[in-house]
């Protein structure tokens, strides 16, 4: 089942995959084709060094991956490709923690500010855009550094996308006509029932108001006669290889691994991917996220100002990709309530909004960590360690041609909680703000809502984007 922002629910995934702990063959990231199980033929094997290298840096929200990618790009003569489902939108800067203009002058960034918030963006589109940008960067003799926390974007980027035929213009028009009245009337449930009856039973599990994917489902049905779920995702072949008896023999009883034999990998990735997951101890990460949410609400040009702009464009919360994004949905809902109340908000209502913003952000970080625990190609790094030490490790990993990459204990991040004390501390965790503490601390925000937040004012960004 898909969860918003490209993170899947993977309750049983980790137990099936048993990802390696400390040591991972670099050849796993640049896998060669293996024996064909159908016709018995053997493909030509490539050395890992013959494949061009692509660095992937991910991590939960607020972990510091953007700064790490920036500094690494300076050292390696690299360019950064954003794998963030919100940073693609113009005008959504604060809530998406978009790299600053000064950062983007220092190092070229790609797939940022490419769409208006009224447009939808899909994982398939990211695959096409990301792969093309990667080719362009490599053609200039520079190093592609893909960074972001949208797990599904990164999975498709590395392993490939399903081979689903593109619909004809006639089918696109036909599907639009079928669903336009449902969307105009905001009748999501009836639209889902319509698509389910057309042949896609899994349409009922789509995130509410994800009209893009609902339309895409119907387009695939009309084009092929089959639902989207009938098309195999390339990642599944890789996962099945790890689940095979031969692959499981490479794991010890405690779930750790030695070298994973390349013969167990039945997929040929296009690049030599070096993948890193940057995170902090969970309590520290949660505290950082809470402070970050506060920072996003401070000042006149924070996430509330951007949410006002979205409302002024005529967009409603939770109705498309941009307005479903964490932070923007909550801010739009809060401002909409304030507008219905004539521009008035109590301190209690503001703190209720802030608490919800913090909670959904922490929950999203938890889902990201769950997702990437099931991704065996990532080496986990501790964001609380010195940045220079982490940079040096990744730099050396890129420059060296060693078969085995070992993360030193000094910077390695454990994927799982190791003791009950940490688990109990998480259960007892409570937000502790540093800016918004008492009723008077939010007075400037409430005044902004009264004087500016409930006024309709579309900025020049919107005009330039249309």
Automatic annotation (TrEMBL):
Record's keyword terms, sorted: ATP-binding, Cytokinin biosynthesis, Magnesium, Nucleotide-binding, Transferase, tRNA processing
Cofactor(s) it depends on: Mg(2+)
GO terms (BP aspect): cytokinin biosynthetic process; tRNA modification
EC number: 2.5.1.75
Gene3D superfamilies linked: 1.10.20.140, P-loop containing nucleotide triphosphate hydrolases
Gene Ontology terms for molecular function: ATP binding; tRNA dimethylallyltransferase activity
Protein family (similarity comment): Belongs to the IPP transferase family.
Listed name of the protein: tRNA dimethylallyltransferase
Organism: Raphanus sativus (Radish)
């Amino acid at each position: 089942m898909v969860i918003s922002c490209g993170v899947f629910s993977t309750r049983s995934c980790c137990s099936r995959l048993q990802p390696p702990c400390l040591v991972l063959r670099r050849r796993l990231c640049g896998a060669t084709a293996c024996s064909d199980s159908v016709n018995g033929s053997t493909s030509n094997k490539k050395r890992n060094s013959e494949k061009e290298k692509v660095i992937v840096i991910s991590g939960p929200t607020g972990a510091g991956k953007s700064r790490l990618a920036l500094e690494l790009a300076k050292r390696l003569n690299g360019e950064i490709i954003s794998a963030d489902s919100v940073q693609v939108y113009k005008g959504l800067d604060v809530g998406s923690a978009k790299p600053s203009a000064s950062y983007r002058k220092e190092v070229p960034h790609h797939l940022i500010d490419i769409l208006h918030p009224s447009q939808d963006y899909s994982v398939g589109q990211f695959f096409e855009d990301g792969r093309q940008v990667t080719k362009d960067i490599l053609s200039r003799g520079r190093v592609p550094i893909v960074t972001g926390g949208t797990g599904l974007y990164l999975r498709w980027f590395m392993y490939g996308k399903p081979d689903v035929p593109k619909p004809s213009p006639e089918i696109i028009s036909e599907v639009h006509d079928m669903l336009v009245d449902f969307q105009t009337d905001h009748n999501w449930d009836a639209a889902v029932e319509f698509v389910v009856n057309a042949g896609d039973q899994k349409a009922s599990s789509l995130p509410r108001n994800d009209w893009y994917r609902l339309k895409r489902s119907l387009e695939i049905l009309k084009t092929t006669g089959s639902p989207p779920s009938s098309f195999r995702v390339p990642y599944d072949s890789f996962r099945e290889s790890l689940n095979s008896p031969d692959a499981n023999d490479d794991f010890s009883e405690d779930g750790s691994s030695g070298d994973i034999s390349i013969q167990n990998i039945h997929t040929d990735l296009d690049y030599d991917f070096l993948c890193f997951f940057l995170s902090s101890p969970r309590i520290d990460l949660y505290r950082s996220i809470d402070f970050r949410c506060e920072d996003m609400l401070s000042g006149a040009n924070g996430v509330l100002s951007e949410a006002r702009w979205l409302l002024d464009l005529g967009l409603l919360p939770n109705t498309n990709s941009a307005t479903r994004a964490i932070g923007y949905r909550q801010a739009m809902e809060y401002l909409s309530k304030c507008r219905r109340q004539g521009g008035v908000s109590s301190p209690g209502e503001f703190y209720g909004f802030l608490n919800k913003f913090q909670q959904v952000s922490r929950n999203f970080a938890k889902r990201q960590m769950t997702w990437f625990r099931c991704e065996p190609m990532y080496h986990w790094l501790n964001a609380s360690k010195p940045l220079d030490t982490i940079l040096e490790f990744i730099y050396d990993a890129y420059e060296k041609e060693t078969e085995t990459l070992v993360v030193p204990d000094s910077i390695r991040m454990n994927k799982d909680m190791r003791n009950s004390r940490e688990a109990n501390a998480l259960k007892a965790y409570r937000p502790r703000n540093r800016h918004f503490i008492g009723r008077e601390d939010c007075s400037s925000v409430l005044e902004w809502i009264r004087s500016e937040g409930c006024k309709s004012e579309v900025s020049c960004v919107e005009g330039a984007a249309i």
